[in-house]
């Protein structure tokens, strides 16, 4: 699943099965997911629809925060160059970037889901060794990814936007 095309060993793949054996099954599914996330499995296949949808939405929310931080930070920097004397648009974009980065850092940095992305590519999904044994037609497949570059990117862009905005404010007051 990674860029190197390494084959996945079946022990790195966890399937959270949709087996209802009690009225508290959803809680049991959540506990299985937590265990798989904590075990840092390469691939997690979630069969229960509700849990899969919730997890996919949570990961999408984190992705949205990350993209918002990067895009608004870059917008702030570009705006500072295009309109160097008008700090309002630059400051607004900078504030959005800083807020998104802070929210991402506070709510996502220590969440084990941050290391996973929802895999939707049918060619990559076809390489999963467990795919034939699934009991549902539309499972949510999470793939573990290194997020170090992502964190460095949005923090660097946000901090650069803040520094440039402060510089522009200082220059305009002077």
UniProtKB/TrEMBL annotation:
<keyword id="KW-0496">Mitochondrion</keyword>
<keyword id="KW-1133">Transmembrane helix</keyword>
<keyword id="KW-0812">Transmembrane</keyword>
<comment type="function">
    <text>Plays a role in mitochondrial morphogenesis.</text>
</comment>
<dbReference type="Pfam" id="PF14972">
    <property type="entry name" value="Mito_morph_reg"/>
</dbReference>
<dbReference type="InterPro" id="IPR026120">
    <property type="entry name" value="TMEM11"/>
</dbReference>
<keyword id="KW-0472">Membrane</keyword>
<comment type="similarity">
    <text>Belongs to the TMEM11 family.</text>
</comment>
<protein>
    <recommendedName>
        <fullName>Transmembrane protein 11</fullName>
    </recommendedName>
</protein>
<dbReference type="GO" id="GO:0005743">
    <property type="term" value="C:mitochondrial inner membrane"/>
</dbReference>
<keyword id="KW-0999">Mitochondrion inner membrane</keyword>
């Amino acid at each position: 699943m990674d860029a190197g095309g390494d084959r996945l060993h079946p022990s790195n793949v966890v399937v959270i099965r949709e087996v209802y054996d009690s009225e508290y099954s959803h809680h049991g599914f959540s506990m299985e997911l937590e265990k798989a996330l904590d075990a840092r499995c390469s691939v997690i296949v979630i069969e229960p629809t509700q849990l899969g949808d919730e997890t996919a939405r949570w990961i999408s929310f984190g992705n949205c925060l990350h993209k918002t931080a990067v895009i608004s930070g870059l917008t702030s920097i570009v705006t500072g160059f295009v309109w160097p004397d008008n700090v309002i648009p630059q400051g607004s974009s900078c504030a959005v970037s800083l807020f998104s980065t802070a929210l991402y850092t506070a709510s996502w940095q220590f969440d084990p889901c941050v290391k996973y992305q929802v895999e939707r590519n049918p060619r990559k999904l076809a390489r999963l060794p467990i795919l034939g044994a699934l009991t549902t037609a539309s499972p949510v497949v999470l793939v573990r990814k290194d997020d170090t570059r992502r964190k460095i990117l949005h923090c660097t862009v946000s901090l650069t936007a803040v520094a440039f905005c402060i510089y522009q404010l200082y220059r305009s007051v002077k």
